[in-house]
Design a protein that fits this description.
Blueprint: H1 6-10, E1 14-18, H2 23-35, E2 41-47, H3 51-63, H4 69-75, H5 79-86, E3 87-92, H6 104-113, E4 116-119, H7 130-149, E5 156-160, E6 171-173, H8 192-208, H9 213-230, H10 236-249, E7 257-262, E8 264-266, H11 284-291, E9 308-310, H12 311-328, E10 333-336, H13 346-359, H14 381-401, H15 407-435, E11 438-440, H16 443-451, H17 454-459, H18 469-493
Parallel strand pairs: 1-2, 1-4, 2-3, 4-5, 5-7, 6-11, 7-10, 8-9
Pfam families: NAD_binding_4 (PF07993), Sterile (PF03015)
Catalytic activity: a long-chain fatty acyl-CoA + 2 NADPH + 2 H(+) = a long-chain primary fatty alcohol + 2 NADP(+) + CoA
InterPro entries: FAR, FAR_C, FAR_NAD-bd, NAD(P)-bd_dom_sf
Length: 494
């Protein structure tokens, strides 16, 4: 007899999900409701000032989304009542103690009922203010752990991290914990309380000096980058997520904890329908700006494997961990990616982008199709900056020497400057991904997949081996990204 599967695992369970209005979280909520209509309750923690505001956010940002179309068709006029019978919005904030839940009775109800906690709340801005990133990405984990410790029926606390907490490491990256309270290389002590105190002291100093909001924001962003690089991480985002992992790992002996580390998430592959995405993510910055002929140069090694994974595959992998982790305990940490099972090289991605926009050029506001050329990929940062000097800085200097006396000359100078600054910014932000040769081992994840029963293999497929990248990118992801980009542009104009 086959072991019970994911649907049975979720039956009559109460689940707390933080960061519920995030991209992946929305898909997770939809999949749970579709997969197991008899789930008892989903507590969705959202940032809001009160319960009414939280309910409105869930209604407008989750319930009314197109991804719930199949459930709306299934329940028709009863969908709304059915949805609210299962979903309970919770006004709160992970950066605050008790998750910012002001209703004492509600907080007690959550801790009495909840069996599974899925912590997804995060600020994903690579260059977020240090104080904000610490509060959400690091201390948010601490506050979730405090709630989990009070949950009488807790079966699993699933922490969603990122594969890129692995710093600048090249080669095969294993599913192993970071050095506990140490720099990435393990050579220096890392004290989270000191990092918190440093951020608070600097913020207080800026306020006392009556610094402007812009000065405060830029200074705190700069400090975050400096602290991350000091300890061996590439950005404030991955540094603060790494510290969050450390806080969680410390509790492994007294709480049932699992940590998942997705790689770069892209649009849905199959469910609830192909190509759904919210916002421009990871490689999508390259896609949209290349299609508009803004991005023409990107430094990198064309043989470098870029690890992307469709959002619905991430959701399925999360459900696999929820269902099978406690049965095997093969490991605490699970990578969710494609670089080991089905590697995609950057050179292949660039060629696919060229083929797509050659066939389906982006149409600008004037109704003109934009012609693209193959993206230039200098093999080193030195050759990249040499190219930028020749094709941007020298022409800018030539135009400036002529005095910028005409509108055409001024427009050309500003155009070159904008394109130069944008291209350099993209190159610097993504250089760790375009040059570092690393693949994320997913042995722990594959061990869970091997345990799945036949039905679960169909319900929650999460093996990236079966993705045809060319077909997915050409027919699903790039069209989905360009549609999302056009909608954002439309909203910006309104």
């Amino acid at each position: 007899m086959e072991p019970t599967g994911v649907a049975e695992r979720l039956h009559n369970k109460t689940i707390l999900i933080t960061g519920a209005t995030g991209f992946i979280a929305k898909l997770l909520v939809e999949k749970i409701l579709r997969l197991q209509p008899q789930v008892k309750r989903l507590y969705l923690l959202v940032r809001a000032g009160d319960q009414a505001s939280a309910t409105e956010r869930v209604r407008s940002e989750i319930m009314q989304l197109q991804i719930f179309r199949s459930l709306q068709e299934k329940y028709q006029k009863h969908f709304s009542s059915w949805f609210w019978d299962k979903v309970y919005p919770v006004a709160g904030d992970v950066s605050l103690k008790n998750l910012g839940i002001g209703d004492v009775a509600l907080a007690e109800g959550i801790t009495e009922e909840t069996s599974i906690i899925i912590h997804m709340a995060a600020t994903v801005n690579f260059r977020e203010r240090y104080d904000r990133a610490l509060a959400v990405n690091t201390m948010g984990v601490k506050h979730v752990i405090e709630i989990a410790s009070r949950c009488a029926k807790l079966e699993l606390l699933l922490l969603v991290s990122t594969a890129y907490v692995n710093g600048k490491e090249s080669g095969i990256v294993l599913e192993k914990p970071l050095h506990q309270y140490r720099s990435y290389d393990g050579q220096h002590d890392l004290d989270i309380s000191e990092e918190m105190a440093l951020a608070e002291a600097k913020l207080k100093e800026l306020v006392c000096r009556n610094a402007s909001e812009d000065t405060i924001r830029l200074t705190m962003k700069k400090i975050g980058t400096q602290r991350a690089q000091k300890f061996g991480w590439t950005s404030t985002y991955v540094f603060t997520k790494a510290m969050g992992e450390m806080l969680a790992y410390e509790q492994r002996s007294r709480l049932p904890i699992a940590i998942i580390r997705p790689t770069s998430t892209t649009s849905t592959w199959k469910e609830p329908f192909p190509g759904w995405i919210e916002g421009i993510k990871t490689i999508d910055t390259w896609v949209t700006n290349y299609g508009k002929a803004i991005l023409k140069v990107l430094p990198g090694d064309v043989t470098t494997v870029i690890d992307i994974i469709p959002a619905d595959t991430v959701v399925n992998a999360m459900l696999c961990v929820i269902s099978y982790h406690l049965r095997s305990q093969p490991g605490l940490i699970y990578h969710i990616g494609s670089s080991t099972r089905n590697p995609l090289k950057i050179g292949e991605l660039i060629h696919i982008m060229f083929r797509y926009f050659s066939k389906k050029p982006f149409v600008n506001a004037k109704g003109e199709g934009i012609k693209v050329k193959e993206l230039i990929m200098p093999a080193t940062m030195a050759s990249f900056y040499k190219h930028m000097d020749i094709h941007y800085k020298v022409p800018m200097q030539d135009v400036a020497r002529r005095g910028l006396s005409t509108t055409d000359e001024l427009d050309r100078y500003n155009h070159l400057k904008r394109e130069y600054n944008f291209t350099v910014a993209i190159a610097e932000v993504y250089r760790s991904g375009t040059f570092f040769k690393r693949r994320f081992d997913d042995s722990n994840m594959q061990r869970l997949v091997s345990m799945m029963n036949k039905r679960d293999r169909e319900l929650i497929p999460c093996d990236t081996k079966f993705i045809n990248w060319e077909k997915y990118l050409m027919e699903i992801h790039i069209p989905g990204v360009m549609y999302c980009d056009s909608r954002q542009a439309t909203r910006a104009r309104l």
